[in-house]
What does this fold into?
Amino acid sequence: MSNLLDTNEGAHYLYMGNDAIVRGALEGGVSVAAGYPGTPSSEIIEQLARISDRRSLYVEWATNEKIATEIAAAASFAGLRSICTMKQNGVHVASDFLLHLTGTGVRGGMVVVVCEDPGALSSQNEADARYFAKMLEVPLLEPGDFQEAKDMMKWALELSEELKTFVIFRSVTRMSHASGNVVIGELPENEPRAYFQYKGPLLDFLTGPMVTGPGVVAYARTVQQGRLKRAVSLFEQSRFNIYAGPERPELLIITSSACYLYSKEAIHTLNLGDRVGLLKLGTTWPLPEGLVRKHLAAAQKVLVVEEPQDFMEENIKILAADAAGEVGVKTFYGKKSGHVPTSGELNPDIIMNTLKGILGIQYEPVPQEYATKAFQSMFKSPGRELTFCPGCPHRASFLSLHNALALDNRDGFVCGDVGCYGIGVLPAGFSTVKTNFSMGSGLGLATGFGKLTKFGMNQPVVAVCGDSTFFHAVMPALVDAVHHQSDVTLVVLDNSGTAMTGFQPHPGLAVDAMGETAPSIDIEAVCRAIGADVASSDPFDVERTEKTLLGMLKKKGAKVVILRQICALSPEKRGKKKYQMSVREDVCIGENCGCNRMCTRILRCPGIYWDTARKVSRIDEVICAGCGVCASVCPSGAIQKAEVA
It folds into this structure.
């Protein structure tokens, strides 16, 4: 049984941050959880789904983040406790509904869990979702370690239910994906009954209809702002706001989230515990003003450590200006002063260097000679560019796209999207993709390009998206393209799952998050119903795929080509080969004219390599996935494929 369901209160476990969040939600009595896959948040829904049959839980991978918040809100309206999860980009998708939800508030506790990615380790951006809390006028909580991730999640559900507003719970990559010791609490019995009460007066959001709109907004905002004031009074006494250090520190550090751990380590390493005070805020919006004023008054210099943007720094400076008569004039250090980087992840070394500069102390983490040698050694390892996995269908898809556009000879191009196929920008994707923004924007942009024929534009325009992204954000763009008769070709790279984040199911598959059978939505049927001209192909059949794409490029209006082949790393396919690949050395012409290493220089699959000694290509038996695409591109027929029995 999963230790997430252990009923032994007081037991110690090593939990990944996302597991701690799950345990906290369970201890808080969560009944419904919905989300959309996005690193670093995905494990929360995955873990809840795995244990859903052993608890009274409904767990869903929603079609997108907006729908996830609506699923969670419906549960809350019916008196259940709920969470919805997403990464920082998802808050922008969900914001339309969340802006309206602040008008009515909630009933059962509802927490929006946002896991951000400072440094954009697995994202298109490092957007800071904390600003939504201020705009939406809702409480924002940020755990500072793994124990707090559990305890604060439980409290967030309770706080939401007490204040009757949803709460934003923010984690970051180094909190969600690192691990730490956690002491578990009581796991309550959870058998609530859902019932939506709607027969009360119109503006009674506890018993009446949950509606907002003209005539309601002014009243609703007044109610919400009252909830926020109550949150401030609760935050003043919160155990998640912690101070350590001298009564009157030479320097006060104010921080939150994973930056608390970085700051704590920096103070300890530099032995500054008697000079530097550390105020860790777990309730970062609205600020606990009395607590912050108290500590500001005790220090002349203040350093704000946060990532990625200066959200707290800005709010603390406003508070300090309003309370200048009480706290005095301060010298602030942080992102605005240039003492803390304004982008990317922070770490203890960065904080130590900042403290060195502010306090004028001497410290070298490593001898200069060692640092120089370590830097030089970086250039001794072979360069490895980002590429598709062996057997990835996207490599074959982009090869066919590249060739079709070249054969069409009208300088066509591809508008990309968010997913593994973003590598289509690079040589591994034959540098085919020329735009790459948010989910669904590939077809949105392509539709715009496709309407520029009246201005003399004659370039074929192609958009690519994945199967999960198709349901998430591409369908509205396809409706627009068909309705406005844009000359555009959409290529759906259907690899049967949300592959980039761990093969989570989507509406195109016959299974849901909890492993139960669900009706699958046929992408081809959807596209035909919308009114697009549709064709499909197996991307591993390179010749047929090229012909299909080339034919579609010559047609007018909105067209869709579905390239369907399961991801090589999917649980269903991993370790299974369709073909056993080999190279006939006597036929391989390698670097000679007519080939010039087509397989290793152009296709660039990691499963095939160039033997510099023998001047022939070779198959790496360990890495090769047996897709057979390399045999299709070999001009001499040296690469052989034999079906595996």
In short: The mean pLDDT is 93.
